[in-house]
């Protein structure tokens, strides 16, 4: 499915100086940060970062889909991929197990809706199913972030969620499921207190919402 991207400031890749400011602030807040050229480099780096056999949950993410990272994790057989297991389970009778699997994998891989130049990550969700792992339930977290997601501050990040990401995600869910999306839950990660737990792969190119 191709969703047209509106022309707004939220689609423009950040300059090298703004990327550096965001990377420096994130690192000062305890995140591990790598600035990479693009999605192909991130795809290779994600493979390097995750040990074979680890349980890995991929959050809903256009960045992961477009880059091929989602398929690498969920279909390669290298990992104990959580998402295919969850999709094969019965939500009515196995809901508790589904919730536990998604909340506490060895590794969660996803993206964010905004990263601020002051060093915060912002993730919005309708159901909230991917937020526990990002917040701390997963032993490790890897976020792949396109350059267009860098914003000056938290106020700008929340505007990006409401004005840019939500309309695009609503169009996707309307086509896929027949209903619009909503920002029912919002996670703001201001720091990572466990050394080495959270890795941000910050790309110089735009990808995803």
Textual characterization of the structure:
The structure is a single chain. This protein has helices spanning 16-28, 39-49, 62-67, 69-75, 82-87, 91-103, 131-137, 154-177, and strands at residues 32-36, 55-58, 80-81, 107-110, 114-116, 121-125, 140-145, 150-151, 185-189, 198-203. The model is unreliable at 1-7 (pLDDT under 50). A hairpin with a 4-residue loop joins β5 and β6. The protein has a six-stranded parallel β-sheet with strand order 1-10-7-4-2-3, with helices on both faces. Strands 8-5-6-9 form a four-stranded mixed β-sheet, with helices on both faces. Helix content is 42%, strand content 20%. It is an alpha/beta fold.
Helix-strand layout with pairing:
Blueprint: H1 16-28, E1 32-36, H2 39-49, E2 55-58, H3 62-67, H4 69-75, E3 80-81, H5 82-87, H6 91-103, E4 107-110, E5 114-116, E6 121-125, H7 131-137, E7 140-145, E8 150-151, H8 154-177, E9 185-189, E10 198-203
Parallel strand pairs: 1-10, 2-3, 2-4, 4-7, 5-8, 7-10
Antiparallel strand pairs: 5-6, 6-9
Q: Give the helix proportion (percent range).
A: 40-55%
Give, in order, the helices and strands: HEHEHHEHHEEEHEEHEE
Mean pLDDT: 94
Low-confidence stretches: 1-7
Question: How many beta-strand runs?
Answer: 10
